[in-house]
Write a structure and sequence with these properties.
By secondary structure, the protein is of the alpha/beta class. Helices cover 29% and strands 14% of the residues. It has helices at 5-8, 30-34, 65-68, 87-103, 108-117, 145-148, 171-176, 194-203, 244-263, and strands spanning 16-18, 38-40, 56-58, 78-80, 123-126, 138-141, 154-157, 181-185, 206-211, 231-233.
């Protein structure tokens, strides 16, 4: 169903503001949000200051760093994200970038499955301990990253944007990577030191980079990344709705969580405001 804001507003107090990809964020105003108990979709964070009735925000994105900043969400409101919806599309995009680089000279797990099917030895990193999935040969904690980087032919970055991940692949860690290795980033651009990455590509230390996200973003005209033959840059599109299955998965989360919200049930994909990740 396609909604217009005027038609979606209930006659009494309370209700849910439907906002998947059907409405532009620029169409939503603070006045529109003020009456809603629940918002489905990504609205501009600054508008939430006037959302006095808001009890729940369900984003259409997996990354939610714009909403976890202190004071952004109304006190007592819960936040759920769309983790689990983008893995298929993003992993296929990553594989496409990787194959382009090799010819030239929810997401991490899906990518690991594809690479495993192609004969790769897959090493996974997690924030906390857990069982090893069948598609991984090894699973380690993020604290072991420095020891693992020299082993990897391909380093795939699928992390969300948090204070802990900002600058995680800095100049020193890029220097630890195996000569000729490829780095892929579909998380956030600021996880990788862009200038250090460019230096490593120009010197030949790294064999290539596939970047769907950059820092800065959008990448300015004339930036040296554009001129590097071993860099594949795409405009933050791997997690879009071009794959129907992605859109359907988001709708499924929206509808199930809305049903749970209305019945007082526990919501799926609750976000931990301190870590920025989905609660386990």
């Amino acid at each position: 169903v396609r909604y217009r804001l005027g038609e979606a507003r209930p006659s009494g107090r309370g209700g849910a503001l439907p906002f998947p990809d059907l409405l532009s964020a620029d169409m939503v105003t603070e006045e529109d949000i003020a009456w809603a108990d629940a918002i489905l979709g990504n609205v501009r964070p600054e508008l939430l200051k006037g959302a006095k009735n808001l009890k729940w925000l369900q984003t259409s994105s997996a990354g939610v760093e714009f909403y976890t900043a202190p004071g952004t969400m109304p006190e007592g409101a819960v936040l759920t994200n769309a983790t689990g919806t983008y893995g298929l599309a993003i992993s296929e995009h990553m594989l496409g970038m990787l194959l382009m680089i090799m010819v030239m000279g929810d997401s991490g797990g899906s990518f690991g499955k594809l690479c495993k099917a192609m004969g790769a030895y897959v090493i996974g990193l997690r924030r906390r301990d857990g069982s090893k999935p069948g598609y991984a040969d090894e699973v380690h904690l993020t604290g072991e990253l420095d020891e693992l980087l020299p082993r990897a032919d391909v380093v795939a970055v699928t992390l969300p944007g948090t204070p802990e991940t900002r600058g995680m692949l800095d100049k020193e860690r890029i220097g630890r990577m195996k000569p000729g290795a490829v780095v892929l980033n579909v998380g956030r651009g600021y996880i990788i030191d862009t200038e250090a990455l460019c230096d490593a590509l120009e010197s030949g230390h790294l064999g290539g980079a596939g970047l769907d996200v950059t820092e800065p973003e959008p990448l300015p005209k004339g930036h040296r990344l554009w001129g590097l033959p071993t860099a594949v840059v795409t405009p933050h599109v791997s997690g879009g709705y071009h794959l129907y299955e992605t859109h359907q998965r988001i709708v499924d989360i929206f509808t199930e969580n809305l049903s749970r919200f209305l019945s007082g049930g526990e919501l799926k994909n609750l976000v931990d405001f301190e870590t920025g990740y989905r609660k386990l």
